[in-house]
Amino acid sequence: MEIGKQWEAGQQRKWDGDDVLLNDEVKMLKQVPLFAGVSPAKLKLLAFTSERVSYRAGEALFHQGDTGDAAFVLLAGRADVIVDGPTGPIKVAELDENAIVGEIAILCDVARTATIKATTAVEALRISKENFFKLMSDFPEMTIEVVRVLADRLGQTTLELSEARSRVAELSKR
Amino acid sequence: MLDPNISRYIWTHTKRQQLWVLAVVAASMIPYFLSLNLPKQIVNGPIQGDGFADPTATQTFMQIAFDLPYFGNVTLFNGVELDRLNMLFALSGVFLLLVIVNGLFKYYINTYKGRLGERLLRRIRFTLVDHILRFPPATFKRLKGAEISSMVKDEVEPLGGFTGDAFVAPALLGGQAIMALAFIFVQSIPLGLITAALVAVQALVIPRMRRRLLVLGRERQLTARELAGRVSEIVDGINTIHSYDTSNFERADISSRLGRIYKIRFDIYQWKFMVKFINNFLASVTPFLFYSVGGYLALQGRLDIGQLVAVIGAYKDLPGPLKELIDWDQNRQDVQIKYSQVITQFAVDGLIEPEIQAVSAERADGKFEGPLAAINLGVMDDTGSVGLDRVNFSLTPGETVAIIGNAGSGADIMAEVLARIVWPTQGQIVIGDADLHSLPESLSGRTITYAGTDAYFFFGTVRDNLLYGLKHAPITDLVFEGADLTQRQWEKREAAWAGNPEFDINSSWIDFEHHGAADLAALMPSVYAALDAVSLTRDMFDFALRSNVNLAEHVELKAKTVEMRRVLRDALTQADLNGLIEPFEPGTYNVEATVIENLLFGNARTPELMAGAIISNPYFRTLLEKRGLADTLFAVGTEVARNAIELFSDLPPDHPFFQQLTFMKPDDIPLYSMILNKLDKSAANVSESDRAMMIRLSFDYIEPRHRFGLLSPELMTQIVDFRTAFHEGLPANLKDAIELYDPEQYMVSGTLLDNMLFGRISQKYRDAVERIYTVAGGVLRELGIYDTLLSIGLDFHVGAGGKRLTSVQRQKLALARALIRRSDFYLFNRPLSALDTRTQEKVLIASLKYLHKDGRKPAVAWVISNPKFALFFDRVAIFERGRVVEDGSHTELSQKNGIFKELMSA
Q: What ipTM was estimated for this complex?
């Protein structure tokens, strides 16, 4: 089959550039805890329906106060989480490869609670709100996973809060 | 107010013309009667030879002589002596003349009556619309726009037709009927009495029977009006109908309404023809009585036969006018009912006095020294719920006040009352020392500028709507010459005849000098600044960029756009944004464009080369096969199909993810999987049409977007080679079917954006469009086409009620429309509620700055939707349950432990 051969020849080539294909994205998504339990076929669909976006160092993925319309999965690069404080912007956390960010705003329909700024060149997958919800309703196992991750995070935050409180209490005793 | 009686209304406005037309009608009777007598003269005289017994005998023609009391016989013209043949021709000539004269009279009278009617119709319609403009605001809560407009347009229409006949017809027909009746009386008193009795019966019974018809007619009018109202409700509420699946409920409603209208109409027909039958019967009973009673009298010898024949002959002329007279009366009542129906709708209490809306070119700035203040103000709506409860609030010149309050707090109503949109039920609003409601709108409407949450936009362009708030009075009249002057004079005269104002819509209605500009062009920079302040400039650019520009109107754009391609690319390189646009280059594959775009490298201008049909184009197809691309693209297509099926086959066809699948419809999936199955068994199974389908599928593929990994460098080179060959060998019949991507030429078939970018925006960078825009703004200024583009953007048509704009764009445009007005007081009533908080803040700050530019210091009251914005104002007033609960500066209120502090910490 001549067509087939010609085709394979094309397929086997790995051409240069940072073109990452759907299948590679699926592998990367698999690394994100939120999606670890989701089947590859569904992740491929998620990747396909999402936008591949690039940012340079210093560019913002979104700003605090914006309406939340999408979540981002960092495929490559690092970013800072920055919150507007009374005295100016405060960096509250750092994001690494395979982190998901912005999912709170789309789940709770609130404005962005922080600004995300790329510190290196960032490759990200932008999952729109509608698609995220649709996936959750179509694939309950994903919802369970999301709930698990959120609960984890809440536990972590509660822990940190009580630690902070006890520290405040100690400080005020002095 | 309109006179409730239609006849009196017509008489009041047209009495002089009515008298004139009556006189003309009377004058027209003379040639008419002469022409009736003439045939007898012709037949008896020249034809039958009466008085021409002798071949040489002559008769006097045209002798004008009559007897006058006291003067005796007066002879004006002795006449000419004519023989028999000449007399025949002379009399026939007179007959022809009289026919023409009668015709001319008829022509004149009909035209005159028609014109009379149209003028009155114009007057009524204008009066009605004038009333709408003067209705008190609360009236509009219970009005349906479509019903009112159907009244203005359709329901008063018959009045025009009736006007001409209102007085002429009864005079004429009544005269004819009385004449005929009198003639019968002269011939025979008994027969005259019989006739008079029957006529009386007809005149009494028939109108009585027709009364029911009038009732039905009124019902018909109401149901038809309601139907118009419902249809427009369907149009306005179409989204609600769709989303709640109530379309069939609406169908049922319309069907039942149409059924009712049909029933009414059918009843009308039944009655109408019944009445007609009785009328005809009564009319024919009379001759029956003539024959029987008259014949009996004749046989008895009490009536001579000649008289009987004469009576019957005279009667022939009676039923016609009588019937028409009854019809006329019917028509009159019908029109009267329609008219009363309409004017009761327009008889609204508390109509705004005409003086309040009198046109005035006088400027209003600085007319009022003092504050805009509400004193002991109460507002209650028609249900009795209290909106404002004895509030005192004042807006001092020059200060900015933030009004805070949630829905139902009275904050919104305060702004509306101050803007004169809602009328207070208690208390007073004063501006300076004048009562706001006694001021003419020319003062209050210019001193005060209001923008609320829901703004209305009129059908027209963005520019029309933006400048709408400046058009108060005709400032400079156009200068007319020659034929235009005649036309304008005619327009003015007619307007005066119909009681319409004679303002010229084409005059300049904007007081440019007031805005510190000589003309529209000089005003525009300040308008553009307002667009900037509300962050709408970007949208205007988008409108311009997405339009196919009329190059004839903007000649300079052609060259500048081509130049822009290079300049923009340089600017992007400088800003280190090089990868944002993937330019079209004749010798390179553009990865951000589809395969077919790369193959054709041009815009198809005829359907035969458009994406759907091109595969069947023989030239294209043959070349594709010849270059071996058909097989490769077939392979790409199958791979696209395989991927798509793998991704989507599990999803239901209505799943939103299918929107991402741009190249395939959900219904096509089974078809493609069937072809793939066939192909997997043996390549020979695949038919020619399957092959075409697969190739077709490959056309829409974009590697960075779909990421299936199907484009090898070899394939790209092959495609570029194809492109060259395709263009070189293009047959003559396809030369005009495609417009090539030429870096040095403007593409007429593309939008302005296509032409400026001359490439595809990279999928890779989020907000790429934003960033290009940021850079492009500077480039456009550099090239001097920034304003041209904005101006093209302003030509965007906003659609009915501004529906082609998004809710955010509408609010921004409404705010800009308010900002460009020059007023002493600005009232903003949550004008930005559709915007996100960050943009709201930005626009709010920029708007305040815009109002305070050039050293102006107007007062601003702004109902804000986020308490945080209070920081930007001199003073803060907090409303709750229709009262002011806190009022003071930001610092004062922050220090107090009150509601404001609570709100701020929330």
A: 0.73
